[in-house]
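User: Hi! I have a protein structure encoded as tokens and I'd like to know what sequence might fold into it. I'm fairly new to this, so please keep things simple.
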């Protein structure tokens, strides 16, 4: 991934690529937009990647509006195209297309997207409905959402994401704590700072709890759309903003946390939930979203619209640390990228048999 701070979609694509690369029943060629420089450390692709002649927003617009450049110009002949996000690159009309859709958040929360973003996603949605042979949904919530928004149900597949378990040692936890200047105990939020992550209410809930709970550590790249959030974080007591954390430090950051607080308003999946559980860290997350589905009964669920509910959920998690740690460990064991890759390869085979639309 060549973004300086990869989001969940980019991380999922890299991890799926790793799982596919070690299989002997599929040959994977990566195709990316034109870029310069090395991949982000920790998120290097493990498959050969070939570049299209253009990149960035220009590539998105050209793909959706002009049907150019086609991926075959970089990849050569292939059996199936897999777009790992809702925006597929252009390809031959005869090539079966598999598309991963993580969420349709732009339909339900347009206020969380720029005007250009809404236009691009709407055009991409129309393209996927028209062209995709199969659509892979990372949660049941997203699959149901796709079915309700005009996708053919027989072309939808449920393909949950996985987690790469990298158990952090006590030494690694101590080193990460020292590197980031963290206290012995802390609550943790991990994710891009954007409106749908609901950080404002989390900060209010943390302030409501006061000195009764550990400091809140916020780890993630600055996002967009909430100009007041940065000043709110800066003004908050007992809150530590560490910014983007390198991938090799993340397992230790999770492992050292007292609990992960992730009351997002909408997610396609919510990788931090599984990442925290894989380290035995208790999780507080939102009811009625895909993160409830991902948690699988192993987290404290809260109403993300209620500051009081979030605060009570944090109290609950702190009082049930041992129980939630064990439940989370068991939940994460069943979510592997190898299992995801098997479902994806099965979808590739089905798409080839079904043919292009």
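Assistant: Happy to help. Inverse folding works backwards from shape to sequence: for each of the 357 positions I chose a residue that suits the local structure. Here it is:
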């Amino acid at each position: 991934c060549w973004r300086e701070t990869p989001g969940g979609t980019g991380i999922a694509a890299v991890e799926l690529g790793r799982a596919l690369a070690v299989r002997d029943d599929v040959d994977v060629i990566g195709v990316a937009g034109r870029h310069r420089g090395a991949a982000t450390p920790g998120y290097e692709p493990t498959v050969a990647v070939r570049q299209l002649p253009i990149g960035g927003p220009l590539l998105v617009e050209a793909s959706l509006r002009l049907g150019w450049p086609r991926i075959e110009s970089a990849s050569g002949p292939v059996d199936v195209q897999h777009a790992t996000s809702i925006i597929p690159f252009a390809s031959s009309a005869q090539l079966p297309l598999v598309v991963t859709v993580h969420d349709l958040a732009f339909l339900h929360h347009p206020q969380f997207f720029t005007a250009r973003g809404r236009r691009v996603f709407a055009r991409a949605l129309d393209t996927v409905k028209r062209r995709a042979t199969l659509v892979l949904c990372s949660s049941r919530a997203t699959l149901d959402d796709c079915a309700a928004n005009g996708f053919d149900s027989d072309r939808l597949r449920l393909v949950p994401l996985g987690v790469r378990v990298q158990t952090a040692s006590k030494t690694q936890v101590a080193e990460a704590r020292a590197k980031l200047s963290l206290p012995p105990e802390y609550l943790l939020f991990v994710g891009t700072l954007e409106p749908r992550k609901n950080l404002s209410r989390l900060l209010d809930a943390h302030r409501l709890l006061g000195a009764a709970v550990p400091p809140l550590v916020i780890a993630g790249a600055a996002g967009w759309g909430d100009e007041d959030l940065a000043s709110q974080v800066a003004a908050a007591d007992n809150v530590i903003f560490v910014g983007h954390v390198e991938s090799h430090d993340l397992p230790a950051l999770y492992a050292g946390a007292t609990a992960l607080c992730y009351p997002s308003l909408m997610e396609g999946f919510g990788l931090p939930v599984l990442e925290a559980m894989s380290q035995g860290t208790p999780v507080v997350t939102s009811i009625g979203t895909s993160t409830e589905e991902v948690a699988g009964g192993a987290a404290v669920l809260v109403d993300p619209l209620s500051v009081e509910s979030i605060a009570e959920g944090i109290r609950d998690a702190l009082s049930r640390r041992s129980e939630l740690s064990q439940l989370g460990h068991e939940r994460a064991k069943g979510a592997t990228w190898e299992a995801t890759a098997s479902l994806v390869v099965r979808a590739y085979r089905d798409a080839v048999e079904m043919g292009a639309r």
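A useful reference point when you look it over: The mean pLDDT is 93. Feel free to ask if any position seems puzzling.
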